[in-house]
């Protein structure tokens, strides 16, 4: 067999059936792989120096990959498998990961490769070097996701999630966290899809209740996976965003909503910026958050940024559904006196928001602005100027 790709692609003949080979469901087989698996499993060692051959072969493979010459790369790959028999134990141990990286890329792009060929290769490589099991499982799942095979990817991640070998090392722990993260993200995608389906149903429709329950079940599964993950140190922004968006739909007052707002604020997409404003209003709709100074600071700052960005309509959209009850809920004379007495910094932030949303005639705004405080005098003056410039009651005045 002169070419690696021929061994991957060609059909199984009667003569081939007599060989010990790795067989896929399509009749494709891998005698080259079985041969070297057997060598590793039986502990066979050959005292030969393959250094020059394997090094030259690796260079040829890399050159072929750079030029997208997939059949040529496959041919060189066939010769590279001898590294599994290298007398140097370090090279032998590192070989499975190198073979996986090179082989998976070749099979991903090879014109005659297919899904079953790739899956068979991945499954064999997972078990060839147990230390690479989690890494290969994760990459295999991403390959399946790329091809739209969500259920297969989820099963793959579930198996990897429960896999253990010896004592759990720090590197294994990181990979397990990643496996759980992507599983949670996959569940988040399913939840989003169910949520979209639910929005197209009539609430009086019998199917609505069933779909609603299904969506809640998915949200619970997702929050379990991602909720545990974000307790682990690391940069998990995409996963956190998925987690808190689910929480926002279920419990908008959750403390993670402010973190969600920060993530949305960093985004370059306008719809994320709009959602960031919605999240802040949603947090302050709840009685338990009325004295959350961080939320009021964020809202005061974000209202000004939004209005300076010529998005008055965003603010009006959020305010229209609240203007009948927020004034008494947040901005009454009673709350102005109480807030000023208990937390002057909070009172100042709320006064700015009140002035922007209700104008200079707002009782809360007027009470705070009348206070003569030596330390806060300049801040109150800035609040007046900001309200004059940004109030949505008389914009531009």
From TrEMBL:
A Pfam family per the record: TAF1_subA
Taxonomic superkingdom: Eukaryota
Coiled coil: none
GO CC terms in record: RNA polymerase I transcription regulator complex
GO biological process: transcription by RNA polymerase I
PANTHER family from the UniProt entry: TATA BOX-BINDING PROTEIN ASSOCIATED FACTOR RNA POLYMERASE I SUBUNIT A, TATA BOX-BINDING PROTEIN-ASSOCIATED FACTOR RNA POLYMERASE I SUBUNIT A
Name assigned to this protein: TATA box-binding protein-associated factor RNA polymerase I subunit A isoform X3
Taxonomic lineage of the native organism: Eukaryota, Metazoa, Chordata, Craniata, Vertebrata
